[in-house]
Amino acid sequence: MTEHPAASHAAAPPGTEPGTSSSSRGALVIAALILLLAVYLTVGLITMDVPDSAQPPGPRFYPLILTVGAYLLAALLALGALRGGSPSARTSAGARGAPTGDTRALLLAIGAFLAFIVILVPLGWLLSATLLFWAIAASIGSTRKLFDLGVSLVVSAAVQVAFSLGLGLNLPPGILGGIF
Amino acid sequence: MESLSLLGEGFAGAFSPINLLWVVLGALLGTAVGVLPGLGSAMAVALLLPVTFSLDPTGAFIMFAGVYFGGLFGDSTMAILVNTPGGSTAIATSFEGHRMAQSGRAPQALATSAIGAFIGGLIATTLVVFFAPVLAEVAILFGPAEYFALAIFAFLASASVVSDSVLRGLGSLIIGLILAVVGIDGISGTQRFTSQVPQLFDGISIIVITVGVLALGEVFNVVFKRREAPPTASKAMTGRPFLTRREFREAFPAWLRGAGIGVPFGVIPVGGAEVPTFMAYGTERQLDRRRRQPAFGRGAIRGVAGPEAAGNATAGTAMGALLAMGLPTSATAAIMLAAFQQYGMQPGPLLFERNADLVWVLLASLFIGLVVLLILNLPLAPLWAKLLLIPRRFLYAGITVFCALGVYATSAALSDLLLVLGIGVVGFLMRRFDFPLAPVMIGVILGPLAETSLRNALLSSGGDAGVLVASPITWVLYGLMGAVLLIVAYRRVRSRAARDV
């Protein structure tokens, strides 16, 4: 058999080992996220305003189980990550190849979505969706910015026509409202 | 034979020109979304939900029937042609399917997959027609303790089966469970974890979570990795997909075995069709090893036939479980549940009495949808692959715009857009660091069921936890859970020991 075993797996270019340090460091990130959620639940549990009519087991009962579970899991995940070798040598198609990525592009994409939310109502669907489309395309990597802008405008307009005029969905018209 | 006459009426209702149009449209759109890498049938339903708002309930559900199976037909197309499975359910297909494509047999692989999906869906939907009313009667026997057992079953199964590390699976699960607990408590009316934000009183919508985790998370992942170069489409995309009689005979038993494996998993909630597709793949490989000339590893037609039939069989019976028991066993089913509720209907035993006409039209539409999809996919599969000729940046920019549209159109709330962004970032982090996504969805979907049934059980027993394991049905469920976990552990150890052929 000349075939490389990794060839059978979707996104695992040969040479990259799954479950490397980035993956175990990653477990730490998710552990922190779960810890954050657990703290949010704890605060919520303490400040919860339970009506006297609530019969036991009341509204606190189940979230309490989740909170304890979340602290426990955060601790176990963090422990596993700090000990280094993550037991999960994922070789299935879920394994992610490149250990590093483009953080700037990612932030640009997230920022674009945030900007979309901010300008959606004041500027309207047409302009904000154009911007969103264009910015995401640019963050993935584009060499033809002006051409992309045209495509963005066409897509955004097509959605507006199909969904707003055609199907009657309520999309914010914004400053261009008078034109349509 | 009451079912047959009712189904006949359903067909009569579904066979109006306008309804047929909705099925075809749904099948086309579902396939189109399913073909896109990273987006499976759950996303197809979620993104197309707003489209159906302007239709009457019957038209909407008929369209869903097309979308539902369409997503599954679509995701294996990409798995075979370019080795990028549309959804996790197509991963098993991609192994042998892509090898077939590489050796110039892409049309045959596509045909095998399309026919397999058709047969699996057909068998499962037929079973649903005859057994859904029975299932509805069984469901009446289910009390809170039994539903709680089902939910626990689903949690443990999805957390342990889908990921290689149980701890990571449980971590994903708890994120989903916590997301689902936000909002006003249905039993006592208490505000929980809303931080006094009125937009959170109704909880976080399943659509927001699905779009965030599955779609936006994927977009961010693509952006982060910046893979602008499109995967080189296989040269063997031309030619009509057809199977010789020999190939057909070769694939036929695998289709049936796959369907057999897939059918029970529609009712057992383990997080969708991922498990049965891998089980079908494993079974076919085991059987293949015993043959004189093992074909696996060189593009075995059975390696495509089995998983495809299993995946669609699961989807078919999942629809039965949703309609008859009100139990969503996959993310797709959960969104369908949300759609039912949007129209003021509650799936479950009573649905067959209250909305019988709609249910039977829906079931009939599933059959029509399957036929339409087979017709669409046999000749058109290579055409779908042309979607990949769209530059990646436009593909994902378009997905992002549709995410925003889908979320905003369902609620018209900017707060939901903020939530979907936050959840999308979480979805990205989980992808980036190899945390499985299916348990998140199962946690979100079944978390509320677990809580209400647990509290109702304890409420009626006066706080005695023994009630949770008091009935024979719960014994069966917990016993089954143990058995499934053991089998999974055993199979995993074995498949690890014999990874390559």
UniProtKB/TrEMBL annotation, chain A:
UniProt keyword list: Membrane, Transmembrane, Transmembrane helix
Low complexity bias: start-end ranges: 1-14
Segments of this protein annotated with the region Disordered: 1-20
Domain of life: Bacteria
Segments passing through the bilayer: 27-48, 60-84, 105-137, 149-171
Pfam families: TctB
Family matches, as InterPro entries: DUF1468
Domain DUF1468 per the UniProt entry, residue ranges: 29-172
Keyword Membrane: yes
Protein name stated in the entry: Tripartite tricarboxylate transporter TctB family protein
Source species: Rothia santali
UniProtKB/TrEMBL annotation, chain B:
InterPro entries listed in its UniProt record: DUF112_TM
Iron recorded as keyword: no
Protein's UniProt keywords contain Ribosomal protein: no
Domain DUF112 positions: 20-442
Residue ranges crossing the lipid bilayer per the database entry: 20-49, 61-82, 109-132, 138-159, 166-184, 204-224, 321-340, 360-381, 393-411, 440-459, 465-490
Alphabetized UniProt keyword annotations: Membrane, Transmembrane, Transmembrane helix
Name by which UniProt lists this protein: Tripartite tricarboxylate transporter permease
Native source species: Rothia santali
